[in-house]
């Protein structure tokens, strides 16, 4: 049975008096993968940052439901950022482990053990003792993903996780994300410009244009028939390179 875990109602965000998000409304079910698509400036990053509590909302509500916890979605999500956001003065493993031990959620020993398991899962355990400056872009982002998974949060938010990477690292990180999605029952909300990847891994596509949601459809429907001109233009202009993630 499907179970709603996120509900966003009438959400609006104004920045410096400008309406950036307008009347955003959608739901996500437990375990679903939702991808936010849309042209540059449509508001995708602002929406994901608002979900994670990094941007204040101007009106509306974001509701989080779980069997045991209710309340603030930001408390129950891990986030992967476009530009990694790793601490330069901490090693890879300390970047992953430190939020859990500093918050008192785990002891330092427990946090390091768990972080090592995650780094291994993402195939960056060999780099555990290296500092971010000596890691490739793809390695940095896999460390960033490990950090987002550290919390056991039921929601994973990914904001253009490959947009700062070279083509080889893009492939490597998309494969890592696909593996994580297969291995977990987390609800995933992803912003990406990698259309072929979105098509392969998403249950639903939310298409944004000028701060609004103009389509919210199961993936196969979104990519099969599109009468909306904005969506047609977008699909024609984006990267549809032939990459396989089986
Ligand atoms: N802090 C800010 N101050 C002023 N304007 C902002 C701010 N953050 C975002 N905006 C504006 O909000 C709009 C949406 O930006 P956002 O980054 O959310 O778009 P996007 O769909 O993620 O674009 P892209 O695909 O290029 O990352 C843009 O017009 C942007 O200039």
From TrEMBL:
The keyword Lipid biosynthesis does not apply. The keyword ATP-binding applies. Residues 6-235 form the ABC transporter domain. Pfam families: ABC_tran. It comes from the Bacteria. InterPro entries: AAA+_ATPase, ABC_transporter-like_ATP-bd, ABC_transporter-like_CS, MetN_ABC_transporter-like, P-loop_NTPase. Keywords: ATP-binding, Nucleotide-binding, Transport. One of its GO terms (molecular function) is ATP hydrolysis activity. Gene3D superfamilies: P-loop containing nucleotide triphosphate hydrolases. Belongs to the ABC transporter superfamily. This is ABC transporter ATPase component.
């Amino acid at each position: 049975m499907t179970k709603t875990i996120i509900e966003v109602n009438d959400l609006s965000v104004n920045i410096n008096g400008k309406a950036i998000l307008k009347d955003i409304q959608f739901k996500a079910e437990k375990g679903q993968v939702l991808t936010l698509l849309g042209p540059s400036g449509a508001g995708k990053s602002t929406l994901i940052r608002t979900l994670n509590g990094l941007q204040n909302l101007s009106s509306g509500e974001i509701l989080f439901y779980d069997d045991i916890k209710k309340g603030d979605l930001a408390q129950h999500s891990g986030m992967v950022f476009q530009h990694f956001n790793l601490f330069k003065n901490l090693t890879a493993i300390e970047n992953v482990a430190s939020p859990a031990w500093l918050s008192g959620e785990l002891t330092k020993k427990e946090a390091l053990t768990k972080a090592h398991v995650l780094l291994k899962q993402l195939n960056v355990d060999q780099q555990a003792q290296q500092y971010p400056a000596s890691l490739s872009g793809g390695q940095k982002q896999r460390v960033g993903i490990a950090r987002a998974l550290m919390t056991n949060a039921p929601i994973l938010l990914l904001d253009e996780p490959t947009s700062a990477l070279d083509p080889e690292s893009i492939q490597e990180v998309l494969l890592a994300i696909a593996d994580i999605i297969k291995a977990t029952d987390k609800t995933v909300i992803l912003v990406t410009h990698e259309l072929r990847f979105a098509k392969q891994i998403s249950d639903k596509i939310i298409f944004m244009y000028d701060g609004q949601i103009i389509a919210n459809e199961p993936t196969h429907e979104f990519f099969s028939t599109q009468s909306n001109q904005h969506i047609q233009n977008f699909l024609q202009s984006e990267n549809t390179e032939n990459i396989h993630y089986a």
